[in-house]
Amino acid sequence: MKDKIEKLLAEIEAIKVANAEELNNIRIKYLSKKGEINALMADFRNVAADQKKEIGMLLNNLKNKAQEKINMLKEQFDAQDNVDDDIDLTRTAFPVELGARHPLSVVKNEIISIFSRLGFSIAEGPEIEDDWHVFSSLNFAEDHPARDMQDTFFIQSNPDIVLRTHTSSVQTRVMEKNTPPIRIICPGRVYRNEVISARAHCFFHQVEGLYIDKGVSFADLRQVLLFFAKEMFGSDTKIRLRPSYFPFTEPSAEMDISCDICGGKGCQLCKGTGWVEILGCGMVDPNVLENCGIDSKVYSGYALGMGIERIANLKYKIRDLRMFSENDMRFLKEFEAAN
Ligand code: DAH
Description:
The protein is α+β, with helices and mostly antiparallel strands. It is built from 11 helices and 10 strands. The strands form 2 sheets. A 7-stranded mixed beta sheet has the order 1-5-6-10-9-8-7, sandwiched between helices. A 3-stranded antiparallel beta sheet has the order 2-4-3. The termini are far apart. Bound molecules: 3,4-dihydroxyphenylalanine (DAH). 3,4-dihydroxyphenylalanine binds near residues 168, 246, 280 and 303.
């Protein structure tokens, strides 16, 4: 009996099977009711009483070992089965949810598209700029309030380096390196040291426009602005230019469009005036041209600058600026259709 047990134990330890079917046959051979181990169990009653304890232990051990071995092999096959399921190369891919463009990108692209139809090309410049390109070259006096620490983010170790407060800095970068005619728009992010609220943020986006050539007049500027306003806000849109002041343009103006909520009658958005302000513009100051090496007796030009958030607010009636930078999917998903 003892020899038989040892022989079976050795057999079981050496078991190797190629597939689940073979494993089942092995299980039947050793562990089923009519299997070899049960046959030994049945023989147990013939064992002499003084050997019963020892043989009993050996028999139990044999049964446990057989069970363990078969369980282990079964787990291996199960795991292999799962792997096979996972790499079904013919299966279609999991659906990946498509993202959508950010509303500010949607509006930026629309602005770019309108101006590119008029022959403007895109120019870009650095967000970390020097004082010359952001202020000095643009005719800002030394004591101009825009240079104030309140508005501008300076680099502490070098006050000559700032985060650009407007995209007008790209104007001078382009004028310094190119000879007219120059016809560019410059979209980009700008920074100001503002307390974040529904109406102000420490970063926002602008698009700058610049056209320099021989004989460019204020009438050209007005016509481009009217075309832009009609394309952006609808063909019924009217524009109005109010005199204003910017250091880098002379004369300077601010442009309003007729309020498309009340149709000009007066409402909360236009504060009862029927007009809403959308951009600043003017004829490039001769000093700015000269600062960039362009002969102001030969060339003239206009510039304009607008906030992308402002345009988006008006177009989509968004009341809180912070929505643009909070990445709330419920808000962003509303613009899927606009993509
Ligand atoms: N840079 C101005 C700002 O940030 C906007 C602006 C006004 C740009 C008039 C221009 C311009 O080019 O002509 O407020």
